[in-house]
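#structure-requests
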Amino acid sequence: MRVVTASNTDVRYFLEMFPERNLQVVTVRGTANLKNALEDGEYTQSKNKKLNIYVHRGFDADAATIYQDLLPYLKKEYAVKITGHSLGAAISTLLMMYLHEDGFHVEKSINFG
């Protein structure tokens, strides 16, 4: 298992590998501190160039940072399940979209408010 707080964020994520099932699971923790709460509040929109959509600026910045940190540890031949809570739910939704765009097999995402 890989447990990381990605640089320049206070957002922790977990990566679990299940080789017997060709599966990897990414879990993104929800709001847990003041920096996370401030990111939740940064609700102005920004244009995400990778997805070509407008998104919540705070979520977008964290998702991009986490994706760059996570990507070298993912296996293209494994399916990906993603989950998150609160702030983590928003970030995991963007991660799911990034992974899909980059050709990963993304299974259903389960997020919690």
